[in-house]
Amino acid sequence: MTIKVIIVDDQAMVRAGFAALLAAQSDIDVVGDAADGRQGVELSRRAHPDVVLMDVRMPEMDGLEAARRLLDPPPGVVHRPKVLMLTTFDVDDYVYEALRAGASGFLLKDAPPADLISAVRVVAAGEALLAPSVTRRLIADFAARPAPRRKGALRLNGLTPRETEVLELIARGLSNQEIAAELVLAEQTVKTHIGRVLAKLSLRDRAQAVIFAYESGLVTPGE
Fold first, then answer.
1. Single pTM value for the model
2. Which of 59, 126, 157, 169 has the least CB density, counted as fewest CB within 10 Å?
3. Paired residues of 85 in beta bridges
4. Which helix (H) or strand (E) holds 187?
């Protein structure tokens, strides 16, 4: 199955470079590009891409607002692409809000080409992608708060003890393979548990699971 991608960035050279790199892959089809968030939203509505590569900082409409409009569309709009945010800095102030809006992850613009290609495939498959530096930023954000907000703590009661363990390990940045090793489970079993956690908590993906774990107080930074 071919992955349809659009690239939204205010730098023409960035758009051209990413497009050339991705279009060279047999399973990826770049179906358009846009120079700002507003154009990106309009293009996405027409082209129905699977993945939108979205720059964070742009004129007219920034990537955060564009992501919100794509991931929480108005009545009558059913298409919701996966959104992969692109940023020059791993400490960008928009990280937390973009993930809360439903973005599937962040990728640094200076990441190796292979990482960009892999990121598109990972996000298209429904997984979340958080670079370690971005995850550290997210955790640091919670650590800087005076106290956990405990938002959603009651929803944790709907999880089994094993599902709660899996959610905690996700929040600590472990991969499926690492969770399997930690809990002595098959990797497919871990995937099943993660699917149930997301469904029970009404979360889109792994990125939102990390946020939920901290907001609910299940995990405390520095533990």
1. 0.72
2. 157
3. 54, 106
4. helix 187-201
DSSP states of 159-171? S-HHHHHHHHHHH
What is the spatial distance between Cα 18 and Cα 21, in angstroms, rounded to a whole number? 5
**Along the 223 residues of the chain, how does pLDDT read in single tens digits?**
899 999 999 999 999 999 999 999 999 999 999 999 999 999 999 999 999 999 988 888 999 899 999 988 888 888 889 999 888 765 556 777 777 778 888 888 888 899 899 989 988 887 767 655 566 566 666 656 655 555 567 788 899 999 999 999 988 878 788 899 999 999 999 999 999 999 999 887 777 788 888 888 888 766 5
What is the sign, positive or negative, of the torsion defined by CA atoms of 90, 117, 42, 68? negative
CA distances 13 to 4, 6, 16, 19, 88, Å, are 20, 15, 5, 10, 15
User: CA–CA separation, 140 vs 222, rounded Å?
Assistant: 9
